[in-house]
Amino acid sequence: MAHNHPSPESDAEKTPCRDDCCCGSREQPAATCDCGSGDDPHWRAGPGPAALTETFTVDGLDCADCAATLEKSIGRLNGVIGVDINFAAAMMRVTYDRAQIRPEEIERAVGGFGYRAALVSAAGRPEVRRSVFRLSGLDCADCAANLERRVGALLGVCSVQVNFAAGTMTVEHTAPVAGILKTVEQAGYKAEREEAGRHRPDVTSAWWTHRRTQATIVSGIVLAAAGTLDLLGFGDPVVIPLYAAAAIVGGYSTAKRGLYGLRSLTFDMNLLMTVAVIGAAAIGEWSEGATVAFLFSLGNALQTYTMDRTRQSIRTLMDLAPPDALVRRNGVEQRLPVEEVAVGDLIIVRPGERIAMDGTVRSGASAVNQATITGESLPVEKAVGDTVYAGTVNEHGVLEIEVTRVAADSTLAKIMHLVEEAQAQKAPSQQFVDLFARYYTPAVLLAAAGTMVVPWLLFGQDFATWFYTGLVLLVISCPCALVISTPVSIVSAIGNASHSGVLIKGGAYLEQMGTIQAVAFDKTGTLTHGRPVVTDILPLGGRTERDLLAVAAAVEKRSEHPLAMAVVERAGDLPLQPATNFKALVGRGVRADVDGQTVYVGNLRLFEELGLNPAQYEATVTGFEEEGKTVMLVGSGSAISGMIAVADTLRSGGRDAVSALRRAGVKQIAMLTGDNRRVAGFIGKSLGLDACYSDLLPQEKVAAVQEMTREFGPVAMVGDGVNDAPALAAASVGIAMGVAGSDTALETADIALMSDDLGKLAYVIDLSRRTVAVVKQNIGFAILVKLVFVALTVLGFVDLWLAVLADTGSSLLVTVNGMRLMQKTG
Asked: Which residues form the catalytic set?
């Protein structure tokens, strides 16, 4: 295949091409020939003097394989030097020889493949923006998919994702926002654009103010009036117009959505119901048609209400952060919207107020209720230097807080964003439902069409009778209950967890937690606090604890080692003598001169080197180590003055958490640590663990997790979310705990515990198992109702209105059943 290089200028430096260069020339300008492969049609010579690189938007590109085919085909055009198609953004970047091909020819070539290409000029190129819209009235997953396709087909829309569970739509676009809003409105929904940093708009209003609800009420009243008059013997000239009016009022929104979808060759339940109503009217079943329109409208109104309630369980999180804050700037206090508060500003929070921004306490002390972030039931004491979070409540005392994050980047905002992303992730059960619906709906549609015409054409049966039966099957074919059975359950469960201080990153992880057979804990920062404290002070030679601690702290004050910090912290306000000539003795301890005497603080090896023969204290040291403590000896060059034991203390409630996991059916509970065998054994015994893996390097922790997986089945690894990344990734589910304020842990963990409460693990396992049970109930019930009514229809026992009632009723029942997972237990 020949490459069409731009014509080189006469003074261009020429260098030999490779022997297998596909340009067909052994000598080309260095500026224009840099062939990396003789077989790659996309990679041409680099842009030369006649070359130009332009970007085109490509509309209608619906699969990555199609994008690859288009890329290859455009790459073969005469004059095209290089092509790169970004399928996700629906953008095509083309480098071409402007002397051989023009942009219009490229656009026409793309059009020949069934797509639309439009040149985005390099000069004044519109910026691709990312907008998030809140949607109202979105009552089924099928409708969400249709809306996504319609908005995605707009010129200037690069990508679109409708999150049915959260009621949001994310669009990357160059098109005006007004055009997107108009398209959503034409589809029968309401949208409002979010603005970064601002409070999210609540597009959900009182149920009785919705136009669809009002139309349903009017339709019901008219239908009741028509039915009453029909029973009283009034003739068709009176009741048929009333039935028609009830059908039009109740079915207008449905017909609008259905016909709008038909324009993009999308067949959804709205279209099916519209056909059913029109078909009923066509064969003279006016009362049936009006009843179908009313019942379907009623079902959608109720379903919209219940789904909005479910979505609000998440959106209420953001409402917890105040819209404004009292800010002190240049000595002047003023109340400003949170969007105008900058990092470094000082905000003032009075008792009883909610904290508006993430920040650090600079003045004051108080107790702060952090339940919205961590799920902790008791307030946490806060003082100067402590971190506080937006949306939490200042119980008492005035706090002056330096802002460390803008409103859009607060921990609360990140949690809400990640929860909504998690709700959009399809669980394995939902993938099964989608697969089932993909074959079920067309099959029933074909059966309905066959039922309408086959008995009439082949057997001379009454057309109206079988046409009516086909309409009933058409209504039953709507997989509404089946499609909504899983997402409403997943949304409810994830919302429940988020209100309890647990962030679950998707339905797959939620379901996986119910299968966990083994749990592996990291030690430091997970089972322990991760901060050493002094546990024992043992003075020798007539010294007091106070004297020993003061001397040790005077030396350790110059050290940055965690053990040294523990000693200094324990010394508190004790008067300390100045230390001079400080020196760190690597692997042994430290040395300094205090009050004219050289003082040593270190391990047994240090004092052995000083010739003091500390063997007499070895039994005491071993006893401390068996309790999981590290021992430091304190003394001079001539005598040992005492010992100080330091330990990373266990978290409270650890043993109870382990017991709760056992009650939840976990077979194996183990600890993975880099600490020595004695420390690991002590902690394992204290907590009642089944196994302790000690002296492990990070890669050895991965091997331990894999070994547990082979022996017991799915494993959950619990760590701090940062240092344990390899082991967390190797586990079936990676759980990071105590991650409030930690962006890294929030992003990387499969499940994040916002507080340090180990008891939340058993709660997550229980929530997972309840969720899986509810999902199975919903799927089983939805399929059973469909199969039963299909069979009854064939036998002639189901009317059209009864079919709608069954479809709508089953959808509402699975929705309400899924919403039970919003309720907190325990």
From this structure: 522
pLDDT band at 667 (very low <50, low <70, confident <90, very high): very high
Q: Range with the lowest mean pLDDT among 50-54, 200-204, 518-522? A: 200-204
Of 19-28, 63-72, 90-99, 269-278, the range with the lowest mean pLDDT is 19-28
Quick one: 630 exposed, middle or buried, by C-beta within 10 A (0-12, 13-18, 19+)?
buried
Show the tokens assigned to 102.
């023009």
450-477, pLDDT tens digit by residue?
888 999 999 888 888 888 888 888 787 7
Q: Which phi and psi (to 5°) does residue 6 adopt?
A: -60, 150
The two structure tokens encoding residue 826: 């325990």
Identity (one letter) of the amino acid at 225? Answer: A
Q: pTM of the predicted model, to two decimals? A: 0.62
In the chain the first and final C-alpha atoms are separated, in Å, by: 71
Q: 502: closest CA among 733, 659, 735? A: 735
Per-residue model confidence (pLDDT) at position 208: 62
**Concatenated DSSP letters for 301-345?**
HHHHHHHHHHHHHHHHHHHTS-SEEEEEETTEEEEEEGGG--TT-
Query: H/E element holding 432?
Result: helix 428-459
What is the C-alpha separation between 567 and 561, in angstroms, rounded? Answer: 10
Query: Which runs of E-coded beta strand occur in 34-189?
Result: 51-59, 80-86, 91-97, 116-120, 129-136, 157-163, 168-173
Tokens 């993430």 — which residue?
Answer: 358
Sign of CA dihedral 87, 91, 96, 100: positive
Q: Sheet of 157-163: strands edge to edge?
A: 157-163, 168-173, 129-136, 190-193
Calculate mean pLDDT across residues 80-88.
81
| Tokens of residue 558, six digits | 């110059």
Report how far residue 305's alpha carbon sits from residue 319's, in angstroms, rounded to the nearest whole number. 20
Nearest residue to 788 (alpha-carbon basis) of 801, 802, 773: 802
Encoded amino acid at 653, one letter: G
Residue environment code for 368-382, b if the CB has 16+ CB neighbours within 10 A, otherwise e: bbbbbbbbbeebbeb
